[in-house]
Write a structure and sequence with these properties.
Length: 188
Amino acid sequence: MNPSTNLAGRLLVAAPGTGGDVFHRGVVLVLHHDEDGAHGLVLNKPIEADVSTVLPAWQEHVVAPGRLFQGGPVGLDTALGLVRLEHDDAGEALGILPLFDRIGVIDLDAPPEIVVPHVSAVRVFAGYSGWSSGQLEDELEAGAWFVVDARPGDPFVPVPEIVWSMVLRRAGGTLAWLATYPEDPRLN
């Protein structure tokens, strides 16, 4: 993989027709990408469970809608906390690992009182999305994903159902046109 193609910090937006419940109209924030593969979190798939069902101490600190999100099909028995850092130096706080653009991950075993003063938004994900070496590149070449620049607020949109069309619209051009693509084009 060419270093200039590192997608960490960018969004993968599922093309119409990209299948599966998790990836259908999914928007994935790529957390890590190198020659060994990639992993990220689907930003717009809340599940019917409050954070309190698995991490009661964190429920009052997560942003709307206050639900767990399915980060992907891998490791559904694990939880990952994604945060927007309040300040550039917030990564010096215990329990926070900064990634890029004031986005970081947190240690969900840390007491919320240690982490929360340093962040402006928290979202908790069950599972993650993962690709082995070359797999994501193959999916990109096949047209399954569009690569779009991320903004720091993207992982924390309070109405996750609008994220797919919101990101496509702001990308402009042909992608903006796809934002209105019907759920079932046969009914158009």
